[in-house]
Write a structure and sequence with these properties.
alpha+beta, 17 helices, elongated, disordered N terminus
């Protein structure tokens, strides 16, 4: 079946069919030109020769036109019919016979028309990448020429002063050998070209393919690995744009990083929500691990917010509200919407909600990603973690103390939204220790003291979202979402379109004053510190 054929073979069949039809149509054009020249010969040199050549050229035009129609209907992957090979292979010798009967033996042996046709045939079959046809045409042509010479031509070659060594049998054997050798050489070249194409395809796959994924360009990198825009191109031949995340080869021997990478893929495969990046595949390839995921055509929120600050363009409250709603819906799904085989909620805690792990697209989508250090609280009946992990500037106080639960994710998105509205960092300091101290005891300014063009209801919202104790915080992502919906001006019908427009504009080029790595980011704290 064609659907089971390799993509390279299918592609070659499509392209070679185009080439073959081009060759056939070229023969039609050349034969039509031959008709004109034959008529000129009939009018000026030899009426008998010209009319014979004209008739033969007309027949060739008709036969190649028929071949073109048959080629258009030939099933994909089916090789050229032996009838076509025999027809084309007979052309030089049909003209040779015509020359012999109209002009005599000496003229037929000296004419350039048969060898020129033969050479064109060999070139055409090599261009079709048909390895068998050239050798068949060459060997059969050599045999046909010798039969015609010894049966018809030899007895009628000129004698006396008109005789030439070119008319003798040794020369004809030499010509026949040349025909067979040319066919064999054409066969070798066609086979070599096919092999070269296959090797080139393998080389491309080795250098550009990560398994079934053709890497297009690197879109991000860090100490843990890199993310590429890629094209999913399986054996069926169809394509789909994806993102491929690769673990750095140096970390393959580090169980902590490998386990986190594997956990991210496993949890991501369980999450199915419009506001969470979908994980499609996970595997190991050429010494490292990879993960294929949904491609989001846009920017990490970290880059978007940093570039917006560089061009002094504050995000409007409805856009910030739109981003917050997207993340909260994704968190609500992770916290309450994923169940085990028995139907019990898994309560997946993200633990690393930060601008680097929120993707925003050119059409205004908001998607939470990177569940690499997430923890499933429900499987063991836990309500909190016992390790410290995440971006320290977005950790909840209880998370720093190693007892963070689901409300820690609520605290993190609260920090993100406060920073988006204010255009400033909330807890980030010059070093991680100072940052953690700020989270535990630093003053959180009312947002209206930083930005006076927003509704005062935002102050009460952030007081609760950023409460130092989990009990004073919103009870869940859904509860925070409901409170966000109640803030005047926090939503609009155009918020998604406004975000998409901003992403498209700021993703096209780095902000003029932005330094390399324009996301104000530090790597995720992944070392599990037991407490």
């Amino acid at each position: 079946m064609d659907t089971l054929r390799k993509p390279l073979e299918n592609a070659l069949d499509h392209e070679l069919r185009r080439i073959e039809r081009y060759i056939v149509r070229t023969w039609i054009v050349l034969s039509a030109i031959g008709v004109v020249f034959a008529l000129v010969i009939a009018a000026t040199i030899s009426r008998n020769l010209g009319l014979t050549m004209c008739a033969m050229s007309v027949v060739v035009v008709a036969l190649f036109a028929l071949s073109d129609r048959m080629l258009a209907r030939r099933p994909l992957g089916k090789r050229t019919s032996p009838v076509v090979v025999a027809f084309e292979g007979a052309l030089p010798w049909a003209f040779f016979i015509a020359l012999y009967f109209t002009q005599g033996a000496a003229y037929a042996l000296a004419s350039w028309v048969p060898p020129l046709l033969f050479a064109a045939l060999i070139v055409a079959w090599v261009a079709r990448l048909e390895p068998m046809a050239p050798i068949v045409v060459g060997v059969s042509g050599a045999a046909t020429f010798l039969v015609l010479y010894f049966v018809f031509v030899r007895a009628n070659v000129p004698t006396g002063p008109a005789h030439s060594i070119l008319h003798d049998p040794p020369m004809q054997f030499s010509r026949a050998f040349s025909l067979a050798a040319a066919g064999a050489l054409g066969s070798v070249v066609a086979r070599a070209l096919r092999s070269a194409i296959a090797r080139a395809d393998q080389a491309v796959r080795r250098t550009e393919l990560f398994g079934k994924y053709r890497l297009v360009r690197k879109v991000g990198s860090g100490s843990g690995g890199s993310v590429h825009e890629a094209v999913y191109s399986p054996e069926g031949g169809f394509e789909r744009r994806v993102a491929v995340k690769q673990l750095h080869p140096n970390l393959v021997t580090e169980p902590l990083f490998v386990e986190g990478f594997r956990a991210e893929a496993e949890l991501g495969a369980r999450l199915a929500h419009p506001n969470v990046v979908t994980i499609h595949d996970f595997g190991r390839h050429e010494g490292t691990f990879f993960m294929a995921m949904e491609y989001v055509d846009g920017l990490p929120l970290s880059k978007l917010s940093h570039r917006a600050r560089n061009v002094e363009e504050p995000l409007s409250p409805d856009v910030v509200g739109h981003i917050g709603r997207g993340v909260l819906r994704g968190l609500d799904h992770a916290h309450e919407g994923v169940h085990d085989a028995a139907g019990q909620p898994l309560h997946i805690m993200h633990r690393d909600v930060c601008p680097q792990n929120i993707m925003v697209s050119r059409i205004g989508e908001v998607k939470l990603t990177d569940f690499g250090i997430a923890r499933v609280l429900g499987e063991a009946g836990e309500t909190s973690t016992r390790t410290i992990a995440g971006h320290e500037a977005y950790m909840a106080p209880e998370q720093i103390e190693g007892r963070g639960g689901l409300p820690a994710d609520v605290f993190a998105i609260g920090v993100v939204m406060w920073e988006l509205l204010s255009g400033k960092r909330l807890f980030a300091r010059e070093n991680p220790a100072a940052t953690l101290l700020a989270v535990m005891a630093g003053v959180v300014p009312h947002i209206t003291t930083v930005r006076d063009d927003i509704d005062p209801a935002w102050d009460a919202f952030f007081v609760r979202a950023l409460a130092r104790t989990a009990a004073e915080r919103f009870p869940s992502a859904r509860g925070m979402l409901e409170a966000l919906d109640a803030i005047p001006g926090s939503r609009s019908d155009r918020a998604s379109a406004k975000l998409g427009t901003l992403v498209a504009r700021l993703s096209s080029a780095r902000a003029p004053n932005a330094p390399p790595g324009d996301d104000d980011s530090r790597p995720t704290m992944r070392e599990p510190l037991s407490v």
